[in-house]
Amino acid sequence: MAYFDAASTEPLHPAAKAAFLSTLDEGWGDPARGYHDGRRARMLLDAARETVASVLGTRPDEVSFTTSGTQAVQLGILGVLAGRRRVGAHLVLGAVEHSSVLHTADSHAARSEQRGATAEITRTGVDRTGRLDVSAFASALRSDTALACVQSANHEVGTVQPIAEVAAACRAAGVPLLVDAAQSVGRLPVPDGWSVLTASAHKWGGPAGVGLLVVRKGTRYVSALPYDEREARRVPGFENVPAIVAAAVALGAASTESAEEDARLSGLIDRIRARVRETVPDVEVVGDPIDRLPHIVTFSCLYVDGEALLAELDRAGFAVSSGSSCTSSTLTPSHVLEAMGVLSQGNIRVSLPRGTPEAEVDRFLALLPGLVARLRAVVAQPAAAPAAVAAEEGAVVDALGRRCPIPVIELAKRILDVEEGAAVTVLSDDEASALDIPAWCEMTGHEFVRAEPRERGSAYVVRRRS
Amino acid sequence: MAYFDAASTEPLHPAAKAAFLSTLDEGWGDPARGYHDGRRARMLLDAARETVASVLGTRPDEVSFTTSGTQAVQLGILGVLAGRRRVGAHLVLGAVEHSSVLHTADSHAARSEQRGATAEITRTGVDRTGRLDVSAFASALRSDTALACVQSANHEVGTVQPIAEVAAACRAAGVPLLVDAAQSVGRLPVPDGWSVLTASAHKWGGPAGVGLLVVRKGTRYVSALPYDEREARRVPGFENVPAIVAAAVALGAASTESAEEDARLSGLIDRIRARVRETVPDVEVVGDPIDRLPHIVTFSCLYVDGEALLAELDRAGFAVSSGSSCTSSTLTPSHVLEAMGVLSQGNIRVSLPRGTPEAEVDRFLALLPGLVARLRAVVAQPAAAPAAVAAEEGAVVDALGRRCPIPVIELAKRILDVEEGAAVTVLSDDEASALDIPAWCEMTGHEFVRAEPRERGSAYVVRRRS
């Protein structure tokens, strides 16, 4: 199996595994106890905290270990919101943050409403590479803004965010900044200027069950959970010392190895970006090509069912993920691709774990074009029902009840039947169409005229321009 | 090192360790993904859930894995409170619950107050063995009671709680019951009748980082944390599959081995209970001698500094814990011993992990009497200042500024100087005196007349009765 989904979880670093095993034997005691086994666990925990602090350039007493990156995000956001309740309840986020950040913001808004208060959430936009619009972000900061949250780099498309500029804007506005560094810790240094930093060990080669919540001295913070003495009263529950030690060892190893290995992975990603464009027709490779994480690339293949693409790649021995709506239980495409305004159909994210053999990448690149072509051949059948609805806007494609990628495929076929300058209207009730039809126009040079809601779904009007 | 602190954390079961190692290799993938490595992790997670459900006699879809027993307690209590908000905010607890339960109740009360609502908490008492007063508990249930919480067995003294009777009272009152089964799961079956059950894997020989939150179908439950798709939306964050698999294997092993091994451990605990009473003067062995956990016993040694006792035992190679105030950072004695009204000074909890060799217990029993005698000899020096304050109540012992066990030691010396029927008054500002002076009277047969607050500390009046 060629595992290309490191952005979901990176396999355990060998040094971390060795540390894990020895700490299961030596560090299982309760670090709150004063006897020999407890003191030994405490020493191991303290040493792990110092390792992490040293890699991040913080003080050890600013570092708390959580039980996941998600918990770190939830506690970090809710803790600063509680600490700054008197300032206000306004929260500013980037539009392409991780779902854990978005859900915590939603929860904050819902709870404020329950209390009869209002908690406005401002989500500021990104450009077509997924990079935050810093001036929009800076303008969103207000005197009642309790917290601003930005990821260090995007988890789906790899684009690195302008943290230094965002931090400067936050400092000027007197607003604390939480940086969700889940995708970059152990790979890239985090620029200074944050008040809270969160991360997740299994993304850098540590084990599952460990996250980081780093709260800078001077940040007003009130724990959102019931009182507990563990982890400086920030994270309740018995400390998982063996996993924490393994996480720290993996972080130390990753950060010493990262320069060389990340350069190698980045070269492989460059190769994927270039070769996919050359060998797969109708593909959109997204994300910033230069200022990006070393190990992630995302591209979308027109006229392909994402679910089928994942399944075929799995059969061929490749593990990748997708932001296509066809592969998600929610039927909506990735909010990241949506905010960027890029195609979501037939989407594939490749994220290379450390040590990925070059030959595996080449095997993937050799396989992909034929696989995409076969899937397109299977799916590109005529729509079952001919256009049955009259419309002023030229030919009508009735794709009601049909799922991505069918509406776009039918549009692509029908547009060839009309004169240049004439319109085709697609009726679709698949949520992905709202994103994918404009993105298809952008890619193919046709004009996207408008979308208008209908009793069932929407009508998408497109004018032929070539 | 003879490790006698299994109630804090039980060493990893050998079968669990083997399962942990193999699942680190095979179950590290993201169980939410559809490719091979993800499906394998999902299958391992599902199998672990079925094992746990089968041991507990529940449905697999009622079982969620948390990241600690503390998290299970917090989510369980807050989730039912949120689900039954319309019924009321009243919460009923036993007085000797684990601190995680008490702190969650405090947090509920504080938050309700912040919202301008009131959330009354009723803590009902226990007898001198630590057993819940069922009729007091039943009378505390009201029409606005959102939840009742009771432990299956006490973590400090081992007494098993009358869960079946409590459950019947809750059923009659239409109040859901949360059972904190952290100390008993894997050792004793949990009686039926609960709505929510919580537990902690590292107490039954599983690894740190795994707790159980079991919510019966039909229980109104609203997650207290922001939305996340993991663990049936009950527990946010990436599932720690290797640790969960190890926890399930340990539970399966513990429950098949428990009958024989627990009978053996229970015999060793009986031996400790009997021999400590025979060989250590002025000792109080507490907790129910019969209806108790198989592996826990607690006793308190008069006139001994608990901190020094722990340190001496550690030097001699024994790891035990203590509920004495002298060993805690809070300067207050264990709330469990306090609610029971028993002595807290010189307190030791012995909790035997599975496989404890009989010879280690015998070595402990051989060592203890001499060690206690030596500590008493060291500490039993005359008070620095003679009684300097006049009082109507006979002789005065001025122990202001002196810490446990000194006030009781001075009282024990001074009482011999007065006639039978005459009084001695102890002035003390050590919080432990409020518990330990009445407990000393109970043990020695002298009469505890009263305690009254003074400008500094309190005056405790005792009448000589032998």
UniProtKB/TrEMBL annotation, chains A, B:
Keyword Iron found: yes
GO molecular function: cysteine desulfurase activity; iron-sulfur cluster binding; metal ion binding; transaminase activity
Occurrences of domain UPF0033 (ranges): 397-421
Record carries keyword Metal-binding: yes
InterPro entries given in the database record: Aminotrans_V_dom (IPR000192), Cysteine_dSase (IPR016454), PyrdxlP-dep_Trfase (IPR015424), PyrdxlP-dep_Trfase_major (IPR015421), PyrdxlP-dep_Trfase_small (IPR015422), TusA-like (IPR001455), TusA-like_sf (IPR036868)
Reactions listed under catalytic activity: (sulfur carrier)-H + L-cysteine = (sulfur carrier)-SH + L-alanine
Keywords: Aminotransferase, Iron, Iron-sulfur, Metal-binding, Pyridoxal phosphate, Transferase
Listed cofactors: pyridoxal 5'-phosphate
Entry-linked PANTHER family: CYSTEINE DESULFURASE, CYSTEINE DESULFURYLASE FAMILY MEMBER
Family per record: Belongs to the class-V pyridoxal-phosphate-dependent aminotransferase family. NifS/IscS subfamily.
Name of protein: Aminotransferase
Species per Swiss-Prot/TrEMBL record: Embleya hyalina
